[in-house]
């Protein structure tokens, strides 16, 4: 079954054709990051406008690269929640238009479910159940994935998402938006023990995260030093901050895997590209005898191949929508069956 996936939840306009949830026939991503960089973060109004301009060309290109036309497509899957509402609406309305014009089924896909599904593209043998740490710019969740469409959130951040904390810390170190990837790179040459940052935990909720105190600690440290006319070594700051965030992510993931009795541990979302996080979790899984899975780097960030992948399993479950489909800015990962 061939699914056309469409993604516009944040600042990438993307379309892809995926066969049977696992095989990517094409994967086109038009990033707006250069424009948002000027403002130090995503400007929602600009994002919506750029999606409107790009979406039909990107979809056309995805069909061409897959060597097919709309006639060869069996269903249309689209990210409908969560995300920037104006951005989501562009993809949802475009997908609805295509579904109406062609009479093909319309499949609504939850953004975090699709990030998890990015792993099905990279790891053909991966099947649920597994434990997944989803770490993106907007979310940090521990999810018990019992089946492709049966998921339960068992841990979450109480304040900032890990990606958001990385981006804000990176900005305070003078790096451009989105800073997470730059911070990760600069950290490679720094000393992770140069600075001691707090490792916040949430009392009474060992699987929950809190990153805002950690983010504020690094910002204050830099600010106080600059008021005294001092400059701190950025590689050491980056390495120490990255270690603190990754320590928290790894600690709770290990606790969640033990609690759920997971045999497989998976990471997903933009921050799953982080070098230290990948290495540390791989090591923990090896020590504990769990299988470890992560997406290829090109499927870590937002893309539509992952939408086509999850769309397939939503279709098999009968999770279809009609012309009443609407975008939704916030939605729990376990809302649909
Ligand atoms: O999943 P994603 O592409 O978009 C959302 O759904 O939010 O995640 C983007 C986030 C950004 O905060 C970005 O800085 C972060 O992922 N990110 C990283 C790395 N690559 C991307 N954070 C840390 N290390 C990286 N290598
Ligand atoms: Zn995302």
Describe the model:
The protein has helices at 33-37, 44-65, 85-102, 111-122, 162-172, 180-187, 212-227, 234-260, 275-288, 305-316; strands spanning 2-7, 12-19, 23-31, 75-81, 106-110, 130-135, 140-147, 150-156, 264-268, 291-293. Helix content is 43%, strand content 19%. The protein is built from ten helices and ten strands. By secondary structure, the chain is an alpha/beta fold. Helix 9 links the parallel strand 9 (264-268) and strand 10. A five-stranded mixed beta sheet has the order 3-2-1-4-5, with helices on both faces. Strands 8-7-6-9-10 form a five-stranded mixed beta sheet, with helices on both faces. The site of zinc ion (ZN) has 6 residues, from helix 4.
List keywords for this structure.
single chain, 337 residues, alpha/beta, five-stranded mixed beta sheet, 10 helices, 10 strands, 43% helix, globular, binds 5'-O-[(R)-(carboxyoxy)(hydroxy)phosphoryl]adenosine, binds zinc ion
**Into which percent range does the helicity of residues fall?**
40-55%
In percent terms, what proportion of residues is strand?
15-25%
Ligands and ions found: 5'-O-[(R)-(carboxyoxy)(hydroxy)phosphoryl]adenosine, zinc ion
Number of helices: 10
Radius of gyration: 20 Å
Largest sheet: 5 strands, mixed
What is the overall silhouette?
Answer: globular
Task: Give the number of DSSP strands.
Answer: 10
Strand order in the sheet with the most strands = 3-2-1-4-5
Low-confidence stretches: none
SS class: alpha/beta
Gap between N and C termini: 21 Å
Instruction: Look at the structure and give the mean pLDDT.
Output: 97
Order of helices and strands: EEEHHEHEHEEEHHHHEHEH
């Amino acid at each position: 079954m061939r699914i056309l996936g469409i993604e516009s939840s944040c600042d990438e306009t993307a379309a892809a054709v995926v066969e049977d949830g696992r095989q990517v026939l094409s994967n086109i991503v038009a990033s707006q990051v250069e424009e948002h960089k000027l403002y130090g973060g995503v400007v929602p109004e600009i994002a919506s406008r750029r999606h409107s301009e790009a979406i039909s060309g990107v979809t056309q290109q995805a069909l061409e690269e897959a060597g097919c036309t709309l006639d060869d497509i069996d269903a249309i899957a689209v990210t409908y929640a969560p995300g920037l509402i104006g951005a989501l609406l562009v993809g949802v309305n475009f997908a609805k238009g295509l579904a109406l014009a062609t009479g093909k089924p319309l499949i609504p896909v939850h953004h975090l479910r699709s990030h998890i599904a990015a792993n099905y593209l990279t790891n053909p043998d991966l099947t649920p159940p597994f434990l997944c740490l989803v770490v993106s710019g907007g979310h940090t969740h521990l999810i018990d994935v019992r089946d492709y469409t049966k998921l339960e959130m068992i841990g979450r951040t109480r304040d900032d998402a890990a990606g958001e904390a990385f981006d804000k810390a990176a900005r305070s170190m003078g790096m451009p938006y989105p800073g997470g990837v730059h911070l990760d790179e600069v950290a490679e040459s720094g000393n992770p023990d140069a600075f001691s940052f707090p490792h916040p935990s949430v009392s009474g909720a060992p699987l929950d995260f809190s990153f805002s105190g950690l983010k504020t600690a690094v910002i204050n440290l830099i600010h106080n030093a600059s008021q005294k006319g001092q400059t701190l070594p950025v590689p050491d700051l980056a390495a120490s901050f990255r270690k603190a965030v990754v320590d928290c992510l790894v600690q709770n993931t290990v606790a969640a895997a033990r609690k759920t009795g997971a045999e497989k541990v998976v990471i997903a979302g933009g921050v799953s590209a982080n070098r230290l996080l990948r290495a540390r979790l791989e090591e923990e899984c090896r020590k504990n005898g769990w299988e470890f899975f992560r997406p290829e780097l090109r499927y870590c960030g937002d893309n539509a191949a992952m939408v086509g992948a999850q769309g397939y399993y939503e279709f098999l479950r009968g999770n279809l929508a009609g012309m009443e489909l609407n975008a939704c800015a916030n939605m729990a990962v376990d809302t649909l069956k």
